Amino acid sequence: MPVCSFFLQGRCRYGDKCWNEHPRGGTRGGGYNDNRSSGQQQSRGGGGGFGNRVWVNPSQQKGAYIQPSSFSSHGSDDWGRGGGGSDWGRGGGGGRRDNLKSSEFSFSSQNKFSALGTSNTFDRGGRGGGSGGVSAGDEDDDKKLEIIQMDMDIWESSGQWGFSCYSSFKTPLSGFTDLSPEELRLEYYSTRASGDLQGYLNGVNQLLSQWKNRVQELKIMNPATRAALLAELNGAAPQASSVSFGSTTGSGFGSSMSSFGNKDFGAPAQARSFSFASSPGFGSSAAPSSSSSGFGNTLAAPTQPPSGFGGSSAPSSTSAASSFSFAAASTDKPAAASGFGSASGFSFSSTANAGGGFGATAGSSSAFGQTSGGFGATPAAAAGAGSAAEASDGLFSPESKLTQDELNQFKAKRFTLGQIPLKPPPANMLMV
Amino acid sequence: LSSVRQRFGLFGIRATVCWLQLTLFGTSSGFGTGGTGVFGSTTTDSHNPMKDVEVTSPPDDSISCLAFSPPTMPGNFLIGGSWANDVRCWEVQDNGQTVPKAQQMHTGPVLDACWSDDGSKVFTASCDKTAKMWDLNSNQAMQIAQHDGPIKAIHWIKAPNYSCIMTGSWDKTLKFWDTRSPNPMMSLQMPERCYCADVVYPMAVVATAERGLIVYQLENQPSEFRRIDSPLKHQHRCVAIFKDKQNKPTGFALGSIEGRVAIHYINPPNPAKDNFTFKCHRSNGTNTTTPQDIYAVNAISFHPVHGTLATVGSDGRFSFWDKDARTKLKTSEQLDQPITACCFNHNGNIFAYASSYDWSKGHEYYNPQKKNYIFLRNAAEELKPRNKKW
Q1: Which end of chain B is more exposed for a tag (fewer CB within 10 A), N or C?
Q2: With an 8 Å Cβ cutoff, are B288 and A181 in contact?
């Protein structure tokens, strides 16, 4: 068969139905979960937002047709790429076509993809039949993470709805909460009726800063986040005992969010409906920055999650007039602040959640003490203790409940690593 | 008023129409001039750049759903539910005039509405956790369903051996109701909150939070058929079932907040080849240097005759697509507000879309004073499928 010149240009209108040959066999954009397809030669042409079309080793297929082996995991890698300009899937990676034109679906453009210069690293041909080459494993992981990073970049800059779950390679990533615009709007209408809009605003800003921090975390991909992500992607549940910051907060966030979701969305009880009604400490945190300064500059109060984190991570989160924008470039300082923001200590509703929130907080505070293995290894225990102690006290502990050592720690300018109290400070020690 | 209604009925004499407008839509600001054309100056008006017919007396708050009457009824009647807690009904005449007919109220925003198959009843679902059955002839509404959370989706199921209402709620249950009984006929647990659903007998699809996707089969009695791994990476927003050439439901289109729609067949001969996704409702297509703006797909509707589909998005545009030829047929100009809902009438001649704020940018962009619109467009020509070349 003659080679289709339109296909080579990426413009063939007939796609697979074309009577001319569409030369294939290029290498494919990676990030593809190797368990799904064995020994495949995948062309990058399957990408470009097309999703679901994977090119497998032609020798395995009948006829000259490329039969993709599975559909659902495929699309992920291409979505992170800037390529795929045409509206419909397999458009070339070379650039975006004008969305407003009636554009025809085009199957081709592996050439464009190879022009991206990524073909070598995406080559999966080296994989054994189904077992997956161990040597290529790291490369795949790298590709996957790269894709996640690009997705985060796009997500941040595109202005799309941020309160959405996100998944890569069929694995939902922790740290993202699914909230539809209607739910948020209903919340607004309800709180407007009851007059407590400030609670709503605080809640929204909390969620927003959480999201921003999580996106930043994934974008920057420090080794800790990377390890946690890979663990998630490869099926392991996020390790609570890991020292890495990313996984701890991820799991804390994920679990508290899921419990939040379960309680608040499913329950008919008024107190547990999805609401931004603030718990006392949360609502009253007027000047979080000052309270955090009271505890020294390296560690803002880990036990006062809503206020301290709000202050250090995103100045906008405390002001009512802060703009609700998913597209704004994040002003959060990624390294230090992100820890606070995503520690998910916030609690929308009553103290029913406060225990969970503090549980997660205690986990993150131990992450800060990460140089001492003792803390890192015992977030679970700390969480249990923390929540048990705090559930009844709200955000602060009465001085009587704190040991002298703990009080000293709170009084000191900085925490001593290894001796950071797990209980929240007494209210009167905060410089508000 | 009630005496007049008894005499004339609601869908009878047009002479009472103007009067009905005044009383039934008493709270709305303008009762319209008969709904012929576009309000105000039309030169640089970005609220209706497509110069489509405006529906008179639109709701006072964002429109959450639109539905046209089934073919069993003569004429075209449009119902629209809104965040102002009301559901309104208009008659759409053949000359394009729209006539407000009636409205009903809930105690919370209305999220979804549908017609019964004979066109005599309208079912409405609301954030007040109830669903109501609205008898249009008597203009009475009664509650037929109760959930523990807001009801997001409501559909009428007409099976050979049963008929019922299906409601999907944020309380993570899917319930089926015989309208005569206060208890559900069946209640199915879902993994997460229901975000959208569609029913074409014998298939029902529900998309939930956390990218859940469940297909139900409705023969004999509803049961879960398959849970599907979502082809999309982000939050599900809307779903619509499409049919094959034999008029049987064969798959669905799923839209997400990330400007992307997935076309998914239930039992395709070649899943990886037949299923695909496409990007839509994004800005600056050609320019790759600046980041794209990505908008949510708010609703998807399939043309009842041609099988082509329409998508509407937060960017304030609607687009028509041919999924078999995998091409875009048309994209509209950009409206000044997001488009929140759309639907076709029973023969596919009319495409209705609603222009109102969808909360995609949070509360700060919410302007309660801004007028909401419903536009009607002639859809007979623009949605013809692209001819296949072979």
Answers
A1: C
A2: no
